[in-house]
Write a structure and sequence with these properties.
Blueprint (H helix, E strand, L loop, with lengths): L36 E3 L7 E3 L12 E7 L2 E7 L6 E6 L8 E2 L7 H6 L3 E5 L8 H13 L1 H5 L6 E7 L1 H12 L6 E5 L7 H16 L10 H23 L1 E5 L2 E4 L3 H14 L6 H8 L4 E2 L2 E5 L38 H9 L29 E6 L8 H12 L6 E6 L9 H17 L11 H5 L21 H7 L18
Parallel strand pairs: 2-6, 5-7, 5-8, 8-9, 9-14, 14-15
Antiparallel strand pairs: 1-2, 3-4, 4-7, 10-11, 12-13
Helix pairs in contact: 2-4, 5-7
Length: about 500
């Protein structure tokens, strides 16, 4: 199955990421450009899209919108409010100067179940986790003042992609203010995401004997971009077996080096698992990432082109000095793996995360949630891969809090490719966990044997997801989805939410 022509825009309503156009979550994204804007009084050069534009009630709900300390906000309280509040953090929204607030995918569900929700645009765009954390919290603090209602009995934190990272930091920085959290397709591994982007490019270069460089500043990276673009098109792509079939569209018929690269990316992104080969070859490797749309997606994410940070911090955050690259999930190294590790470009980080709230550009994720956390991740997501949740799970376990983190693998290929039944079931189960103290069910994402099982992800995947590959058996689906509701097919994504 071929993917419709799509261009990718660096910014997902979450890390970096999103394709085509970032899905902002506005009631009518296509009409966002027609909404009026207001100059920011906090960040010079930034304009704020009117948050009331296109914001209409659901089932008689009460709506509140405005600008708070330089960030647009939306708040919705249902007619029969149950006293609980959900704070929603959107994903990466690019680097433009126009900020807009997003509605959560579960908006209608929240309202129907009696939950109020609130969301901030953040004061500026970019991979801006720190400001997202602060601006989301400021909005939460002002909930009663904005709505003229009592303070919520309970508050949940949720967010997608970059918003997942915001969620993880938020519940650690403001302890005892949330009862549960649900990040999804989130950057829970923090700066390890950039290690992954680096590894995908460095292994491709090593396997094709391409002389890859890693400029350490954004200015040097910009100057290096034409050379990098030529290196990928003229050396790396031909030796991997990737050809251009149309502007911004590619076909992969792997050579020996290409097969090894696919294997390396699989291990880097989460290990041997169902649906991966098709995810890389037929989907993620079939289109380009703005502005380098003439080379496949993962190459457009090379951190060496942006000083290792996409411009959001001073210094490079990517590091592979101790990374052991593998082509399979087996312990020990084969001769091919030894050669790969000897040849690969090594890069050291020059900037590290911090717990200092005064430094907003690089907040640390310690994986010490203190409250129940329910996460979801697509097995085929190669923008923010499953590895992010695996890292968080391992760190939480090392911190003695592994029982507070549950992850559900979804058999999807895109970034944040979840349907509403999958998300609403997860949120419902999170709430039950909070109220009863009994952990919700999840998948063993840190068990390589479990992840490699052909039916991994079947338990919580509701309906078919396009481009994924092998479907779950009828027996597996019926035995693991008791009471989950009807299957829902996920449509093709023209844009990723992130």
């Amino acid at each position: 199955m071929k993917r419709p022509k799509t261009t990718v825009s660096l910014l997902c309503a979450g890390v970096l990421l999103t394709a085509t156009a970032v899905t902002t979550g506005l009631s009518d994204p296509a009409a966002a450009s027609t909404c009026s804007t207001t100059p920011s009084s906090r960040v010079p050069g930034v304009t704020i899209v009117d948050p009331a534009c296109g914001f209409t009630p659901v089932d008689g709900s009460s709506l509140y919108s405005g600008i708070l300390q330089g960030s647009a906000y939306r708040v919705e309280v249902p007619k029969n409010w149950n006293g609980s509040l959900v704070m929603f953090a959107h994903g990466y929204a690019g680097t433009g100067t126009k900020v807009a607030v997003s509605n959560p995918q579960l908006r209608e569900f929240y309202v129907s179940q009696g939950y109020a929700w609130a969301a901030s645009s953040y004061r500026k765009n970019g991979y801006n986790v720190g400001d997202g954390v602060q601006d989301t919290h400021d909005l939460m603090v002002h909930f009663s003042g904005i709505t003229h209602r009592r303070a919520p009995r309970q508050t949940y934190m949720t967010g997608l992609s970059m918003g997942g990272a915001i969620t993880a930091v938020e519940i650690e920085r403001y302890r005892h203010q949330f009862v549960g959290a649900m990040p999804y397709c989130g950057v829970l591994g923090g700066n390890h995401l950039f290690d992954y982007f680096l590894g995908a490019n460095a292994t491709a270069a090593a396997l094709t004997k391409a002389p890859l460089q890693y400029p350490q500043t954004q200015t040097a990276g910009t100057a290096y971009t034409p050379t990098f673009d030529s290196l990928i098109k003229n050396t790396v792509m031909p030796k991997l077996g990737v050809t251009t079939k149309a502007p911004g569209q590619f076909t992969t018929k792997p050579t020996k080096a290409g097969t090894q690269w696919i294997d390396a990316v699989e291990q880097l992104s989460g290990g041997t698992r169902p649906g991966f080969p098709g995810a890389l070859q037929n989907y993620w490797n079939s289109f380009g990432f703005t502005p380098l749309t003439d080379i496949p997606f993962l190459f457009g994410l090379y951190p060496g082109l942006t000083g290792g940070t996409i411009g959001y911090a001073n210094g490079n955050v990517a590091d592979n000095t101790k990374t052991l690259y593998q082509l399979d999930g087996q312990p020990g190294l084969t001769d091919a793996e030894r050669t790969l590790n000897a040849d690969v470009l090594r890069v050291a980080a020059t900037n590290t995360p911090t717990t200092n709230p005064a430094r907003t550009e690089l907040p640390d994720i310690a994986a010490k949630p203190g409250i129940p956390v329910m996460s979801l991740h697509d097995l085929g997501d190669l923008f923010v891969p499953l590895k992010m949740d695996q890292i968080y799970a391992q760190q939480a376990t090392a911190n003695g809090q592994g029982s507070l983190f549950v992850d559900r693998a979804i058999r999807g290929t895109g970034h944040c490719e979840f349907n509403t039944p999958e998300l609403s079931k997860a949120f419902t189960d999170l709430v039950t966990w909070v109220h009863t103290g009994t952990p919700a069910g999840g998948d063993a994402i840190t068990n390589p044997a479990a992840v490699a099982d052909p039916n991994f992800g079947c338990r919580y995947t509701l309906g078919s997801h396009m481009f994924f590959g092998p479907a779950c058996s009828t027996t597996t689906q019926s035995s693991t989805r008791s009471g989950a509701g009807a299957a829902v097919a996920v449509p093709t994504r023209a844009a990723f939410t992130g």
